[in-house]
Protein 1
Amino acid sequence: MSRRTDYLDLDNVDLNTKDKTFLDSTELVLNMGPQHPSTHGVLRVILKLDGEKVLGTECVIGYLHRGVEKIGENRTYTMFNPYVDRMDYVAAVSNGLGYCETVEKLLNVEAPARAQYIRVIMTELCRISSHQVWLGTHALDIGAITPLFYVFRDREEILKIFEKYCGARLTTHAFRIGGCIYETYDGFEQDVRNFCTAFLPKLDEYEELLTTNRIWVERTKGVGILKAEDCIALGATGPVLRASGVQWDLRKAQPYEGYQNFDFEIPTGVNGDTYDRYLVRIAEMRQSVRILQQAVEAIPAGPIMAKVPKVIKPPVGEVYHSIEAPKGELGYFIVSDGSTQPYRMRVRPPSFVNLQALDKMVRGMLVADVVAVIGTLDIVLGEVDR
Amino acid sequence: MLNAIESYLSSGVTPGEAGSQLWAAIYILVITLGVSLAVICMNWLERKILAHMQIRLGPMRVGPHGLLQPFADALKLLIKEDIIPTNADKLVFLTAPVVVTMTAFTTFLVVPFGRAHAVTDMNIGVLYMLGISSLGVLGIIMAGWASNSNYPLMGSLRSSAQMVSYEIAMGLAIVCAVLMTSLQTGTGTLSMIGIVEAQQAQGMWFIFKFFPLGFIAFVVFAIAMVAETNRAPFDLPEAESELVAGFHTEYSGFRWSLFFLAEYAAMLAVSSIAVTLWLGGWLRPFPNALSGPAWTLAFSLVPGLSFLVMAAGTFLGTIRMPKIAQMRVQMIGLGVFGALLGLVGLFLLLPGVRERVQDVYWFVAKVAVFMYLYIWYRGTFPRYRFDQLMKVGWKVLLPIGLGVLILTAVVGLRQELLAAMVGGPR
Amino acid sequence: MSLAPLLRKVFLVDLVKGMSVTFHNQSEKGRITEQYPLERPVVFERYRGQPRLNVNPDTGESLCIVCNLCALACPEQLIVVKGERNPVTKRKEVVTWTYDVSRCMFCGLCEEACSTDALELTQDYEMALFSRDGMVLDQAALEQGQEPVRYAK
């Protein structure tokens, strides 16, 4: 757990209220505890307030630390695959993709074309699913209680596809090192096509509820502004970075898994506030549907698994590979010492790095905005703490 | 004794006018029971309607389609442990829910369910209702203070500031409607029954009068009343996802249910004001335009028919229940409920009953529309941040209310104004 | 502000649009709520649920040949298989076979590793128990499967 509080001078905060009433104090240290409906997991935020305005924050994390990276050092490469889903449990397929690609890079193999197309389809479905959960919970924090149920209703179709394909809805373990192990089931393409046609009107419905709603606009416009240079300095990636105006998406900048074959756009924002992040994520969902529609028409025939030995013993070396997860740049740094178990398995979670931007975004805002900003960063504590 | 009852009921005056304390007590009892029954219905309706708007089902297990859920909730709250914080100001802690509930119920003294169906007809009825609702704010501050905890205190102060600000906009809208009553006889009236009678005499609900002025006043009141009762989208003080908890955090069990009861009663009260002032109170649609025995008969059949339609819907639900053994009790229960509704409907179709019940039915139907609107708002809108909430109250509703008031006065007295301008001194 | 946005603002068009969305969602069309336990959801073929040891349908003997590949594949090492060679049939037969469901994450690696289709993660998902005691399954439990507790109502 982080303990750096010197810049907040929290030690010198006078919490002695004996001679002062609560209403006398101008500076207040408020604890938004690990148990809170809006912190999207077990996140503790210590706020220093001046009346209603936030002077500074400190995030205390680690309540969900499970030692995933240490576990990685004691499992073989194949065995570690299911653990990866549990980090960002909302978008498990992405995590699996990043891991498999990193080990494939270490082994210097490439998944065959058919496997790549299947992986792209699953990953884009996962991106839509993750953004849907974000939309529902973010709207819930701001007070709109119905979009949550609408997105879960529509997400059900995606989870059904996941279940039909790999046998689990959430912790999918869909891919293997070297390709996919599950062949597409009968009706896979038709299911994806049906989903695409059914989903676009639903997306319009979410927008009708929120995008022009004056209450939503007032709650999100100008809240939590993060300028482009601050984003880059803090290392924020994903929709947070793109909403500040920086056109950077790993699917276009460092294409992997055959993304160069698809025609899609990278939505960017202008101001870097919460409203722009909302618009960027909605637009990303539309672009994901576009990719899905292209991919599902063009799945090539062929093998789905590359030639990978049964017992994976990568050569000595280290590799870093990152993908564009729904929440940002998800990176894996694997150091191999030649044995069946990695020497070091380091994960670069996007939510962990994006969370560092919370302090900068929230200074000078009101307390009610802290909740909105945490929601707009789209953090998952499973990823932050690992 | 039956003669006494008959003679009173056919007199066509309220107990206040008749000077009968016995009947006043009976009316008070009936209204209290009615409001409590309405709150119980609202609990079920809110959960079901909100759930349907969210593509889910709502309570289904406790009783057929969750119809017994409010009773289960009430029972649970009654048998819960009564927790009083150690350092809480005990007297204030205990009296706060009572103050809030009692003020909410006392406003119903002047609410007219019909020409003769109010407990009393004060000639300052509207002013009385506004005043008593403001007293409820005191109860909220007491609740926040007595909890001896930072967050409930902040929540109660915010809640009370919000309620006070929006009462101003409400007051301006009410004055606008009261102005309109004076345009028939030359003297206006604050009496609730008088306002409805003025609408009847002028042949137009005040919402349509001087269109769009009456409508704008109505909209201002409709928004202000949602903020007054701390409901979405103005429910920041009691939202769960915000940092500051509501003023009723430290209350548990029955005391909390008193706050809940008071909130719904307050919703009913302000909806009653809106219905009385703008929507013609107990008047059926088009009382002057569509008059005559045929129309009167047609409209008098509506209450009974509406209950029969509800009964038909219930029977449809019974038929559509899964036909397995575990559901048999629920099917029977729902069928019995449908039969009860049907019986009430048939009773309301009887010739003697259907004229008497007209007033009450139309009033309750209009208030029910407002309750549905409350639930609809809650399901649709995000909530305002506190400073935005205050901005809407002071910077948007207040100027609009003032403007509508001045324009109503100008339009209402346009002949006199023109005459004064034309024939006045040069 | 130009005329159209001003009119939209004054007439609360955005709020009314939102209200119409929630209104028409009240119909039954989109509802997919399954009222468990009256309707139990049907899962698909590849669902990774309750583990079972398959037996040969004709002869009734276990399909497991004690190759131990599942135990080696499991990331949590919760499968323990002990077998001994039957001198008559020259094949290994199971002595004890335990599977600890409490630590299982249903990843399916054991199912993939099994060489004879003996170990299978079935579509059974009602595995709730009141205590941890019943969570270490032996061969009999794995072959028969667990009967979920059916409630009377």
Protein 2
Amino acid sequence: MAGTRSRRSEPAAGAGNDRRPALARFLAEASGAEACEITSLAPLSGGSIQENWALDANFSGGRLAGEQRLVLRAAAATGVPSSLDRRQEFAVLRAAFAAGVTVPEPLFACGDTAVFGKPFLVMRRAPGTAAAHRITRDLALDPALPMIAEGLGRELARIHAIRPPRPDLAFLTPYDRSSPAQQIEGFRAYLDRHPTPRPVLEWGARWLETHLPAPVPPVLCHHDFRTGNYLLDGTRLTGILDWEFAGWGDPHEDIGWFCSKGWRFARLDREAGGIAGRASFYRGYERDSGTAIDPVRVRFWEVLASVRWAVIALQQSDRHIAGGERSLDLALTGRRASECELEILMLLDPSGLPADG
Amino acid sequence: MDDLPRGPALLALARDVLVNDLLPLLPQQRRLDALLVANCMAIAAREAEIDDRSRAEIIGELEKLIGPDFRSPSRSAGPSLSRIAGEDTSRSEARERAAELLRRFAGELRIGAFENSPEREAFARAILWRMTIARLRLANPRFLAANGFA
């Protein structure tokens, strides 16, 4: 989720070896194969909350007969309460896959901890990179980026076409419990526990509270739709990743998150995810959804995105400071809260720039 | 009295050796860790040379905004916060009082306490800007520059 897609929650390379026999048995049974041989099981980088494993397996018979390149996704040691569990994430992935969203095909979910030590899901492994700094810096990609942004707009429209009621997604938090007002309450509860006062975040939260948009019919929101959470194989989009925060919400929330400055990486000037101007991304979204994007609502959600990202950054560094996770990356992430605070000021007080810097 | 080179200069030298001499020798998959170490060293060096005057000025402005009557709840009286760097106020006491003032400021912003007075509201915003820029000068001056702040 938050932060760069690297150096996070990576299990030790040999950690999965003793789990291979049980995992192979599970895969064989779940796929209807006579047998399954795991030829490789290696940790992948990426995912701040989950651990991901590259899993190569050879299936004898069954619906996956032959060599398969898969990903196993399990909860990392530090669980974050607001994220979905793996079986829930699997159900969301299935719904997205069925709706035509470009996601790696979800194959199995397993809640039996005897198999891999923790619940997990298995999906196909899509080729490509999600490295945000590389994507936003690679000059060779530049000519294709507006087209990629438009494609991402279409993908998001397809995600938002999934709407309640959905019995298969009944576990998702209802919108009235993830509304902006609820989120503001959550931010404040966190700030009350945080040892250092953050006046800019308080000011931003107050602005949000006094500018709440009228509620809209909720849609499925990814809630972490951004550069760093999709895979590009060359210029081809091969997968939208990291669905662990999905829930019902205002469609503009995902649009604001995608465009917020915290996710533009090396190209702050390219407002759609650091890859293109907003026009390309908005065009793809509006054409596919048949709905016009409301810039006033997007601005609201961009301010909320900056407050949210700041709180997440502080929480990430809490994991190092108080949570017993020794990590330079986590320790440094807390410093990024000030970047969000600058963005809140730039969004809400553009004429207030101090003359002396 | 201190030995030379002093701490910040030593840190800068160590960072230079890390980035220019050691980093190229590391395998690709460990280079990000080395860059994170270099970033930590840069932040630590900037924080070691922190300008107490600028911090004291911000606290002084906060005191003006919150009101001359403000007293830290933990202390009934004390010297002016604008004299934070003065000899009559110990560093830890000053820090404690500054933290309390900051908490009060945050609390006032939460309830919109300055919103009925355009003048105080503008003053509060100016403090927020100043505070944020001061923080980023330490944490990420490059981000500040990329956003048009020298």
Protein 3
Amino acid sequence: MPNRVAIVGIGQTRHRSTRRDVTLPEMINEAVREALADADLTIRDIEAVFTSSMETFEGIYLPDHGAAAEIGAFMKPGFKVCTGGTSGASVVVEGFCMVAAGLYDTALVIGFEKQDCGETTAAITAATTPVWGKGAVTGAIGEFAKQALSYMETSGAKEEHAARVRLKADRGACRNEYAHLKLGLQTIEEVLKSDYLVWPLRFLDFCPQSSGACALVFATENRARKIHRKPVWIADVEVVHQEPFRAGTFGDPTGKEAYSQHVACERLYKRNGITHPRRDIDMAEVYEPSNWEEMSLYEHLHFCGKNEGWKLVEKGITEMDGEFPVNPSGGVIATNPIGATPTIRVAEAALQIRGDAGEHQVAKDVKSALATALGGPNWTVLTLLKRTL
Amino acid sequence: MPATRKLKDRDVYLYHGQIYIPNTYTAGGLGTQVLAALRDKKKILGIRCPACNRVYVPARSTCKDCFGQLSELVEVSDRGTLLTYTVVYQPHITQPVEPPIPYGIVQLDGADNGFLHMLGGADPGEFRIGMRVRAVFKKERTGSILDIRYFKPL
Amino acid sequence: MRQSAKKTEKQQEYISIRFDAPRKYRWSTGKWIGRTYLEAKENKKIVANRCPQCREVLWPPMQVCGRCKVEAGEDWVELAQTGTVMQYTYLVYPLWDPHYGEKFANPYPNAMILLDDGVYIRHFLEETDPKKLKAGMRVRAVWREDAERGEGTADIKYFRTIEE
């Protein structure tokens, strides 16, 4: 029987666009210390350390090795996970599997990114080689722009709906002390006045480049209950891959549909007896790189039917005080240190279950939550968290 | 002109390309104090871990062994003992000076770990493990580790 | 090359170092994409291979069919050079491109084109006027001059709108 695994410590840095005041290891150390303090543990209690970040972003090869002391991995087992945009959630899955398998009773799971050290879009574009067309890929944003255009044309969603999603995210971010972009947006017009970045996405439609880290402490059941009053259980995980940027080869016309999200949810929900996600789960922290993608994700994650994502927005169902809150933390569109972002989704979902999200705590009682991760290559990682198993 | 060349004996091409992403490395608050001390005072700063009673050079924020958060800056000597060294002869774009470049690890008096830097002021063949060396600072300093030109034999 | 730069935040000094030099790489096309390069350069053709099991045309040509997980072999097919635009976008704000080594906003829109034989290709469109761009427009490949060819699909300069 695999062990049950709980999150017993949560820590984040206050995410900002530049952190000139720290080196990369020092920045990660901030999140680690906060997670240990939250768990009331010392680094000696941690048996293994798992890290994730994007390669090439900081211009350092093996950034986690340079931070071995600062993450408490000196002379300890450590694992590095890089799976593109989903890295921060893949590392959660890796830590979960190792602890569930009984290899370690406690583990530290860290996602980090210091994007002020490089050029983000260039670093993502370096996932391709010019062997296959120079200038054809503009990082991830070109792909999400095409997705937005498709969604605009086929679903009936209007720019106003996307703007409302942006406002929702900003409201959450302004109430989240860790969030990066706190813009104080008030009206739809403000969002629609923003310049185009890559058409039809405007600057405000897309996530920022942030620098930050997020750390979680995992423990097995018999340790978890002694460590924290409110352990949050990782009930299940699911990982599904899709091919990157190929488009159309295996039946997906624009290549931008995050079909892996749909398939991953089908499997996760079936295993956990979830037939009506908005009723059977209490809220979600989803990985939405743009506001348009968020509406399309509602559909892929089975929160509503096809072409109905924008209707959830219109009815306010996914607001903080709504029937099914999505991204009360401000989401990715307000804070995106890429290697840390999926870990932050898990952390924020866990905070909601604990009731510890402070000013951005949702109105309803949260007993279970879904945290999703999406990568540029449309890979999906899902984590289902529960207050009791 | 295409950036490719076909291999002679098969239909395979080599694309000669680049990955060019400018990067910025931040020294951080503590690192800046170390570099500023090199620039302004020609002093080398280490940091002491009170729990382990050891001094790290250059100063760093976390102790490797006890995980303590460090803040007690101490000045270490600009003299020390050469623990090990090597000499680089091959040129490379990343080098700060022209080869041959002797460089090694010096244990500065007052520090508990080694300090990596270039060696100079003598023929590459003259360096020996155990030799006493001293830092030579540049006249024009900018707040860089290269404000120390090299360590030369005492 | 390296420069030391001082930035100030309020009264506090923070030193940063900028490293600004290209890292050179040589990438091989391998055998399958190599064939695409050859046909584009010598014959102005776009070729792909067909999986022996599922009979699907694999674009870009691959050694292994990802779905069937079998060796895809060398059953080469020539692809159509006309197609329909499925979706497109264009970069407004110049962003750093690591392969060019500078900030770059490609002057041509980037599109997903469905070639007439059912294969999707990502390429550029000649039409730069946003008002004239729309999904569903018919396009044809325009090739570069002989001396400029030798970079695979980049040997097609862009796809030109055609009336049909």
Protein 4
Amino acid sequence: MNWLLSVIIFLPLVGGILVLLLPESWTRWTAAIITLGVFALTLWLYFGLVITGASFGTVANPAWKESYDWINVNLGSFHFQIKYALGTDGLSMPMIILNGLLSFLAVVSSWHIEKRIKFYMAMILVLEFGVMGVFASFDLFLFFLFWEVELIPMFLLIGIWGGARREYAAWKFLIYTFTASAFTLAGIFLLYFQAGGFSATFEYLSSQIAQSKIAGTLPFFGAAVSLPLVIFLLLFAAFAVKLPMWPLHTWLPDAHTEAPTAVSVLLAGVLLKMGAYGLIRICLGFVPIGATEFAATLAIFAAINVLWGAGASMVQQDMKKMIAYSSVSHMGYVLLGVAGAAAAAGAFGAGTASAANLAEYREAALTGAALQMFTHGTITGMLFFCVGVLYDKAHIRDIDAFGGIAKRMPILTVLFSIACLASLGLPGLSGFVSEYLVFTGTFALLPIPTILSVFGVVLTAGYLLWMLRRSFFGPLNMKWSGLTDATALQTFPLIALTVVIFFVGIFPEPIINLLGPSMHYMVVSMQQVVSR
Amino acid sequence: MDIFSNPVQYAWIVAALPLAAMIVNFFGFRMLDVLTRPTEAAEQANPDAAHGDSHDAAVTHDEEAHGGHGDDEHRDRTPFWASVVGWIAFGALVLAFAYSCVIGAQFLGWFGYPSNQHLLNELQSKGVTFHIYNWFNFGPLVYNIDFHVDALTVVMLVVVTAVSMLVHLYSMGYMAGDRGYSRFFIELSLFTFSMLLLVLGANFLTLFIGWELVGLSSYLLIGYFFSQQQPPVDSEVPWAPPAQVKAFVTTRLGDFGFLIGILLLWVTTGTFNFTDLNFNTKTSATGLTVALATTAMILVFCGAVGKSAQFPLHVWLPDAMAGPTPVSALIHAATMVAAGVYLVARLFPLYATVAGPESLQVVGYVGTFTAIFAATIALTQTDIKGVLAYSTISQLGYMFAGLAVAETNYVGIFHLFTHAFFKALLFLGAGSVIHALHDNGIGAQNLRNMGGLARWLPITAFTMLMANLAISGIPPFSGFFSKDLILATAYERGYLPIYYILLFTAFLTAFYMFRLFFLAFGGRGGALGGLWGGEYRGVGQPHESPLVMTLPLMLLAIPTIFAGWLAWNNAFGEFLTGGEITTPFVNPFGEPLTLVSTVVALVGIALAWAMYGLRILPVNAFTANPIGAPIYQLLKHHYYIDELYAFIIKYVVMGLSQGAYLFDKYIIDGFVNGLARFVRGLGSLTRRSESGFVQNYGAVLFGGALLLVIAVFFAAGVFTR
């Protein structure tokens, strides 16, 4: 099946058009069936490989590969070639599946929306299309194209269906992302030409990187700056905004707070992961020398992200804004893991178990970062769904305005508590696995930023449990005595995500086996380049 | 069958039993319980059946403010499916306890397997490790879920399952009729499972999972009365919703150090495995220097400080009384607080042989300081559970001191072993008293409202007297042996400051425990000089608890009285260490040193007797003077530590957090918004080109990026190369 990835990408787009064409009474079911079908296909991406025993692929040898010539311009010595190249490996496949799952759940949880429902569902589907494209592209330019495609539906979803300050939030989101994209595009061109200017497919780039094509310095107003570092930073611009990395994060709390529930879920669940994905796939994968030079700084930013985000969460009154800041905090662990994988040298003498270059610790750190992308997507998605349920019932999200509502909403309380416990890294739930991996990997290389980040775990427990205590526990605030529990339809996405969170938390082996080969390949090839 | 001929092979069954009970109950019988419950409307129609008092909520129920019926409310009978949940949870614990005993018997060689004496010695001294399942590996870095069973594990298995089993039994009476009955038993099962996972873990990963789950379970159980009204501040009764958060976050603060310690050991040795770390760590061959090892072990001890409520992270334990009293018994005796002591005991070879001596000194001095610190607070508390809570903190300090001063870990662990029984007995006894008085409402836990209860609660009073004698260290009760072992070891190994401080603490312990006893059960006009019965200061008619509650008290009294003899001829120590104890056994009854500690304890008892029983000394003998009064206030308010922490949280943590948020809001966003305004100002000059459509921005973006690239390329000299 050489066309499965194309189907997964374009089916949502077709579905979006279909939704617009069909009568409004069909909208919800059409969207639900399309997204469920896409989700089923994304699962087949995984199980199809498992059943045949095929490899999950690496960047140099992706699974489900598709490749067609698209644009091929020759101008003198310049070759400008864009291929329609698709593929997956361990890094992208969990993201594709996650996007399939969350898009479906987003449609289910948007059942009650009445305002311009046709256009809304169409935009959700177009968003799914764009995000699928980002994760499935195996050509740098195609990647960037999809990267920009995703902006439009997201801008409209926040701008039309958002809260009171939706226009401000939508524009802020757009301008931040656009400005940063300009730098990234510059970085992409630079990378393309430096790597040979022949092809921009990921396989080609990774093979070129192995030959250390990107090195040397760049004269910059008389000073010599490292060329790999420049390319790394240019590329990183858009990813840093998307992740988001401090101090480029302030669009996120606004966008999250104003966006409707399902959009917040997708924003936290998959859109932030595009930044992390770009950082790992492109910055780390194709500019390893630049990554190594920047790693120590990146780790400091990671620690700031973790602590800053946690601190800002602590003082929020709006539940959604609190979770948005907790996303900032948790994405810091991704940054930390990447920094650990790229760090220049170990901090301790080589232990008995570790090789001289600490490759295994790097692998653990990078796998942890990749896993954190997935676990944060499910956990934070679930948190946003929970807040969404509460908001639908009460029409406010002010933490202190509630009180003791566990009495009235026992089911939501249990599920919300599970999400919070997963978020604060309780063992047995998925968040612990990824955080533990990041810590155990990175500590060998960057101990001080790791220690600072570990402290985030204490703060996370503080603000999440404190929120639960203020909103759900204590004597019932009589104002809410008429509150009813979550409906079956509202509970469905929560249960689905709970199952995933428990499964990954208790049996992490399957997903680690999925991530493992890609991460291994990445660390090994990175080490080859850097140590040369 | 192998399961009986070589039971240690199946030690996982012990942990699996409560887990299975929890799962079956959660998905099965709890659901049935919830579904078959009378609806709220039906209950409101019949308020008599639905309304009552809970024992621990200790809050008068104001229907107006309370807003409906909740899990903390009491009904006459436990619903059928709820009692099924209770019986399944209890049954699983009975089996788990029985199987733990079978494993223990195998370690004693009673099974004829392993038949070979050499193999038996191997089993006793080293234990066996079982692979359960694999998480993932990265080359030599292994993340496994493994179990390890050695003598220390067996002791912990027996203690945990025994105490937990009796707490389950007791709870059937204590919690009878409570709305949350089935939830309570599910959480008890989770608690027991977590603790068993913790003690079975063969590596830091497995132990840490159990460790955190113990934290979760205590969070859930402390917050059992989650919808409780805030009790009046002067009642000294903690409030459940904040207490549960405090317990979790405070212990997490300790876990922060613990995790760093684990990481430090992990990156220098490449393993989480206790056996490897304990017995194969050579500081020369790895990146682990002695200094790093010492640092790591002190950091690991931070985790123990949190979980075992040592100074300065002890603040959560007194508040943990907000949970139902059986939970307090479980937390204070066998689970949770025992975890920290167990951790240090488990890693004892690392502390004693790999790390520098400073690491154990830190353990010893923190423990010793906590022992006297908490004992002084306990002198002044009037909440019956408050006295017991501070006595636990103090006794845990003894355990850490015992670990630090001895050559092997058995001195500390033996005190953990005996303490588990008498502290469980004390808490369950206190629960029985609260149960007897719960009609009193708010003051049911306050010693001021008790007195003379021995007359009505003879079984409770007698068993608690046994426990009091044990904790005070009176021969031949169990606490005497274990406490004396710690004192004697400290003295003989030259830790004189620790010895004298702990000796003085023993005096304080005897005093405050008998103060509690006289205030609750004795008093003016009672028999035996005010020991038994006397003036009752409460209201209503107290009553002895039902057999389901007194039976666990009587059963716990047996080890409380006799368990100390297990240390005779170093038997306990040799079992635990699987070898000879180098220090020869000294008969404690023939020791002048023992005489000293016993006399000290007796003086404490005598003083309490004189003040609270015979009343020949006025109660305010020490506090009604200008020196005593401020000290009394200081102790009464727990040295104002809570206030200090509240200050730090309010002004430092929240201040910094607020600062971060305001920085975002005004500095970063201010900059961004200002920039936007500036650009818009420019834009108004070129209004005609602004179409407002996203795709035009896209075109501009693409063109701009191309220009940028070309500029960079020129700068880089690409075109001129």
